[in-house]
Amino acid sequence: MIQLRRYLTGIVISGLLMAFPASPVSAGSLFEQYANKTAAGLDAETADMGKQIREVFTERSINGYQRKIDFADYFANFKKIILYGAKLANYGEYKTDLLFARDKEIFMDLPDAPKGDKAEQADYADKKYEEIKKNVKEEIDTYVDLIGISLDACEIMANNDLSGFTANEENRNRIRTYLLESEAYRKFSSRVDRLKKGWPDIERRISLQVKQWTPAPKNPDDPLIDTAITGAL
Prior knowledge:
Blueprint: H1 2-16, H2 27-35, H3 39-89, H4 94-103, H5 118-159, H6 169-181, H7 183-198, H8 200-211, H9 227-230
């Protein structure tokens, strides 16, 4: 019985060699080493091996769980930079647009605009211009702040990826699917030129985050955002 137990233990140990650091002893001599151990020695070895196996699987489980947490956090922030980026892009030429509205008397179509007196209308247009410009600037500042927070989070997590979430193929496929199918990214890609005109650094940073999840360009002259994605929208 003891001999059989030694034989089976030797087989188990040989099968587990791949899971642990290599031993200076060859597989054959390792089998002989275990075959010559006493029952008490085998019990001690088996208990120790069981502990090591539990530690290995626990570490793998923890790492896998941490990878899911990291990706969920990153993906939430990634979707925010796309959503807020598209909204900010709407204001890419807001100064020009507001001046046009003032000078072309578009403000005169508003319900509270005065009628008749030209001086009163001009004063109203100037005040409305300043009022709207202030409100728009406040909204822009809000979007810039929100994008900055999420961009910082994405960059820090991607650059210090200890759990390996950026290399995980399932995660990569989820973001690629989002880029291909989401309405939010469709809006962003259609407005990206306006975002670049108003806030080139923000557009550059967002595009770098998108780029790392898409196939690499074939040459340096290819677009930063993969045309296989933008062309499918």
